[in-house]
Write a sequence for this structure.
């Protein structure tokens, strides 16, 4: 049996009707937003993984990942001069190659837009955050918890932007009991 880092969830649309996503305008959400910043930590993959686990480890099995275009996550797949795309790992950066190989090994078909379940968060975060930190990916995927009605993304600076429709015990606890990170309510 094959070990998949990601598995297609068969949900093509982002699951929250209070969010409008588009490649041109980004995130337009009728919601609350908080930004979570590490204190005195350099933005690197290890610190960002620690941030993720500190905040979300208790609900890690409830999280899913969404992308409007999984195969276009990394900028170097696009040749802006010719307006063509290349998804052959051997012609791209090491980071993009690792990302595309992860998609191939997980049977994520080219052109897939939708949600995935993550079976190995450490492997996924190591690969995706490496692309983000190095500027190869312009933004992080959207990670969400449908039942708790929130989603978040990683920023290349090492922070997390988290959107939620209404307060709930998880969000309240995250804000109230946090002593390790700075939280701004936007």
């Amino acid at each position: 049996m094959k070990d998949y880092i990601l598995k297609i969830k068969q949900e093509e649309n982002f699951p929250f009707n209070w969010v409008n996503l588009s490649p041109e305008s980004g995130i337009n959400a009728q919601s609350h937003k908080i930004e979570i910043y590490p204190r005195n930590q350099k933005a690197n993959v290890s610190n960002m993984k620690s941030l993720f686990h500190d905040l979300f480890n208790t609900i890690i099995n409830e999280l899913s990942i969404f992308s409007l275009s999984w195969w276009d996550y990394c900028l170097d797949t696009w040749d802006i001069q010719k307006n063509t795309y290349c998804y052959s790992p051997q012609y791209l950066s090491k980071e993009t190659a690792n990302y595309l190989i992860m998609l191939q090994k997980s049977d994520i078909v080219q052109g897939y837009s939708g949600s995935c379940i993550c079976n190995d968060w450490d492997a996924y975060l190591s690969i995706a955050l490496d692309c983000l930190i190095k500027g190869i990916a312009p933004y992080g995927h959207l990670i969400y918890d449908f039942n708790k009605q929130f989603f978040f993304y990683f920023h290349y600076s090492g922070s997390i932007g988290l959107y939620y429709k209404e307060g709930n015990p998880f969000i309240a606890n995250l804000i109230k009991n946090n002593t390790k990170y700075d939280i701004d309510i936007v």
Remarks:
- The chain has a mean pLDDT of 91.
